Predict the 3D structure of the following.
Amino acid sequence: MTTPADELRAAADRLAPESDEQSTLTGDYPDLDACYAHLLRNTALTVDTVAKYRPDAINENAHWLAPALAAARQINGTAR
């Protein structure tokens, strides 16, 4: 079963490879796609953490998850 975090990571991988260095959003990125991939990966980490402690709290319509998940699904070609 694909989780929201899996979807976010798949979209990030389509946009740009993961960097060995932990960048910040104000750091230098090679392009906008790399910056957006960073945002998607960080959201996936947030989903993993929430799922670990409060699995019942994962709501795909939550204000912090819905926009990133919608973008990931569009990138992955699985938009609902």
Notes: The mean pLDDT is 88. DSSP finds three helices and no strands in the chain. The helical segments are 4-15, 32-53, 66-76. The two ends are 16 Å apart (CA to CA).
